[in-house]
Backbone:
């Protein structure tokens, strides 16, 4: 079976890859493109560890085929920091110890960034609902939620 | 397995009709789960998202035509849909997480044919009609007539849904959908109830459609529930009658998420609560 040739944009860079029809975007990111920041927790849409944005929309990359990426703009955790400068959310997660093993963290950061782009001043309830599809087995959600809330406040002050 | 992303309805129909074991891909939030679990082994996947018009919401005859690839998130951001059919928008908004919302569609929820699908009772209450395209042409089918049994639809080989039409809302009308789940997010409905109603000038129910999900092998339109409140002001007595009829109409099963008795009871409770919300919306109140 011939592989599918896909031309897409990943973190702002024009990218091409070959994939099988069955391959998910998550498989492609990790195994073809070497972007292993995006994690696989469940493979069934339940945990959010594989979160990326596609044309600005937050999705689970485990529930999307690689072939669907044709012509789309994909953003992963690798596109979050500007060079060596961490995104304020990344910085705050470190400062506030909002992670332990770190498996859920890329997905949570990508999801939280997507929230703050839409809503710079979310209530705690809004943050909790937005992140309901991101599971963390270690940290407990409080530190994560507080880190997102504080980052939002910092970013509002800075702008 | 092959993958195709046709640009036109005709190409999609040809691809689907020409291959046994072809599956339509919309948001993939059910299909990819099944694919990875090897519950299905498609020969061909036809992605309908690149077909012209599939991602559009268009005003039509006072109502809205929603392309089959419009996601739940896009519906929630559409002011016109939210104003006219808040119950349908809320129902689709209950599906999964933010990530799932970014992809999940109404037609996918319907064609997955789970008895617990959240948007389906809301669409049934709204009187939604889907446009089915296929090798024999185009036909319009009421949403209630699409599910056949758990996991099975009445669509013929090569057919797929191109759009969902929500009719004009009408004056003094409102809708609502409520589900019961044991937690607040990310769970499957134990019971779902959709209601759309319109009031007369005196505030009596002029017409109503009441539907129940997850309490039978497929969604049901409960005519007796509509009759129970027809011509009445929704006072305590009317709501009690509505609840009793809905509890009686439910034909649930016992499983780990709810017993038969519990599901029957909750069917009535959700119906009366949904009716109160729909009534407030019909009166133009915030609800
Ligand atoms: C984590 C998670 C949580 C979920 N929570 C809920 C929930 O709370 N409530 C709920 O109801 N569902 C839930 N779901 C199920 C799923 O998200 C919904 O059923 C969704 O609406 C499916 O839409 P889709 O576009 O992703 O469908 P797809 O996966 O693309 O397709 C589903 C099925 O319908 C067929 N199909 C799709 N589009 C068409 C079409 N236009 N014409 C004909 N056939 C078509 C496909 O071939 C497939 O068989 C959840 C799923 C996940 C992964
Ligand atoms: S790996 Fe995609 S949601 Fe868990
Ligand atoms: S830090 Fe380990 S899962 Fe969240």
Residues:
């Amino acid at each position: 079976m011939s592989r599918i040739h896909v031309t897409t944009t990943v973190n702002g860079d024009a990218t091409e890859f070959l994939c099988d029809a069955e391959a998910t975007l998550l498989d492609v990111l990790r195994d073809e493109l070497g972007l292993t920041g995006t994690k696989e927790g469940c493979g069934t849409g339940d945990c959010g560890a594989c979160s990326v944005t596609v044309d600005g929309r937050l999705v689970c990359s485990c529930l999307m085929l690689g072939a669907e990426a044709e012509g789309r703009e994909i953003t992963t955790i690798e596109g979050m920091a500007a060079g060596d400068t961490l995104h304020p959310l990344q910085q705050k997660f470190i400062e506030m110890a909002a992670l332990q093993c770190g498996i859920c963290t890329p997905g949570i950061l990508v999801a939280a960034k997507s929230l703050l782009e839409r809503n710079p001043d979310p209530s705690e309830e809004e943050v909790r609902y937005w992140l309901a599809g991101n599971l963390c087995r270690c940290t407990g959600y409080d530190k994560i939620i507080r880190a997102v809330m504080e980052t939002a406040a910092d970013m509002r002050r800075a702008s | 397995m092959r993958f195709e992303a046709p640009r036109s309805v005709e190409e999609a129909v040809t691809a689907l009709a020409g291959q046994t074991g072809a599956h339509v891909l919309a948001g993939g939030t059910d299909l990819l789960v099944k694919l990875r679990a090897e519950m299905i082994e498609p020969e061909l996947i036809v992605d309908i998202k690149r077909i012209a018009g599939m991602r559009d919401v268009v005003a039509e005859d006072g109502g809205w035509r929603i392309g089959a690839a419009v996601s739940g998130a896009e519906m929630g951001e559409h002011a016109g849909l939210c104003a006219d059919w808040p119950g349908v928008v809320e129902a689709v908004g209950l599906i999964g997480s933010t990530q799932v919302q970014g992809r999940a569609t109404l037609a996918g929820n319907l064609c997955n044919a789970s008895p617990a699908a959240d948007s389906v009772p809301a669409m049934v209450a709204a009187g939604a009609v889907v446009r089915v395209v296929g090798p024999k042409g185009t036909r319009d089918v009421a949403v209630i007539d699409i599910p056949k049994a758990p996991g099975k639809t009445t669509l013929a080989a090569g057919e797929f849904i191109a759009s969902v039409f929500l009719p004009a809302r009408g004056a003094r009308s409102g809708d609502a959908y409520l589900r019961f789940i044991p937690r607040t997010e990310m769970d499957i409905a134990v019971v779902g109830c959709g209601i759309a109603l319109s009031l007369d000038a005196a505030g009596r129910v002029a017409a109503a459609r009441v539907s129940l999900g997850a309490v039978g092998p497929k969604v049901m339109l409960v005519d007796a529930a509509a009759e129970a409140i027809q011509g009445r002001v929704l006072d305590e007595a009317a709501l009690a009658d509505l609840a009793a009829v809905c509890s009686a109409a439910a034909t649930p099963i016992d499983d780990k998420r709810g017993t038969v008795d519990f599901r029957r009871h909750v069917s009535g409770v959700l119906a009366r609560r949904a009716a109160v919300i729909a009534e407030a919306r019909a009166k133009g109140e915030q609800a």
User: Anything to note?
Assistant: The CA atoms of residues 88 and 122 of chain B lie 5 Å apart. The mean pLDDT of chain B is 96.
